[in-house]
Write a structure and sequence with these properties.
Structural class: alpha+beta
Largest sheet: 4 strands, antiparallel
Helix content: 55-70%
Number of strands: 6
Strand content: 5-15%
Length: 292
């Protein structure tokens, strides 16, 4: 296949990664960056064939910045137009660590789990019976469980590693639970309880954005889907010695859930000491706080 003029230009620019003059190189880097993800294969080839540390550092930096730029753009689109798709939000956060993520393969795995549950559901089941089916599929058939040994390991919070290990936090288990439930038209939502993420089963008559008054009961995704009442949340808040707030009992938005996911990852990487990862995640976090 004959290379296009643009590809020839890109190839020539990548061959200038060893430019010693920083001012000249800034111009070269800006031109490479303007090609977006089209430049990545050329930069990856430079990484493979060069033993020059300067070239490798420059190529790696440009790749990271291009991938982060693509992610920030896609994440902004999700917030503004498709935040109803919680799975997409989970995939986007996972891309912050795994930029070459096979999203289709992960989506298929989630769909297979949904089908396993769908086969056991019917329109005559009560709300509690629906939860019993979901709990059976998630915790018995697919053997998901809370990672009680290493609660704040980053792999708990990325969809691909979470699906692989089947060990997660209350948040990752809860997100998967919500995704499956909503795909099956079961009205389960997240609740932003401090120090613990829980779920709420709301009335089928609730509005598109349910309120506290619509909650029928609560679910603990970290304890194999155990069902409990508002009274137990009140006792938990008393133990934490914090003032009760309506948000601790009411369903929250998908953006709130993904915001909490990012915050948990920032906490993980703060403990581990990865400033570059923290910086990237904080840029994502800002988008959840000030959506354009």
């Amino acid at each position: 296949m004959v290379a296009t003029i643009e590809n020839k230009e890109l190839n020539a620019l990548v061959h200038l990664l060893d430019e010693p003059d920083e001012t000249v190189f800034d111009s070269i880097r800006e031109k490479i960056h303007s090609f977006g993800k089209e430049a990545i294969p050329y930069l990856e080839k430079a990484l493979e064939v060069s033993f020059d540390n300067s070239i490798q550092e420059r190529a790696g930096e440009i790749i990271r910045n291009i991938q982060l730029g693509e992610l920030l753009s896609d994440f902004t689109d999700w917030i503004n137009t498709s935040s109803s798709d919680l799975l997409k939000g989970f995939l986007l956060v996972t891309r912050s660590q795994y930029p070459e993520l096979n999203e289709e393969a992960l989506t298929i795995r989630v769909e297979q789990m949904k089908m396993d549950a769908w086969l056991e559901l019917n329109d005559n089941l009560t709300a509690l019976e629906n939860i019993k089916v979901l709990n059976h599929i998630l915790y018995q058939v697919h053997n998901f469980d809370g990672n009680k040994i290493n609660l704040f390991a980053p792999q708990n919070f990325y969809l691909n590693t979470f699906l692989e290990t089947r060990k997660g936090s209350a948040l990752s288990l809860g997100i998967l639970y919500i995704i499956l439930a909503r795909k099956l038209n079961i009205p389960v939502y997240g609740v932003n309880l401090p120090q613990h993420f829980i779920l709420a089963y709301v009335s089928e008559l609730a509005a598109e954005v349910p309120s506290l008054e619509d909650v029928l009961f609560y679910i603990n995704p970290f304890n194999k889907g155990a069902v409990f009442t508002r009274k137990e949340i009140e006792l938990f808040i008393q133990q934490l010695k914090i003032d009760p707030d309506r948000s601790y009992f009411a369903p929250c938005s998908n953006i709130d859930i993904i915001k909490r996911l990012i915050e948990n990852l920032i906490y993980c990487y703060t403990q581990l000491g990865y400033p570059d990862k923290i910086e990237d995640l904080e840029r994502l976090l800002k988008l959840t706080e000030k959506p354009s």
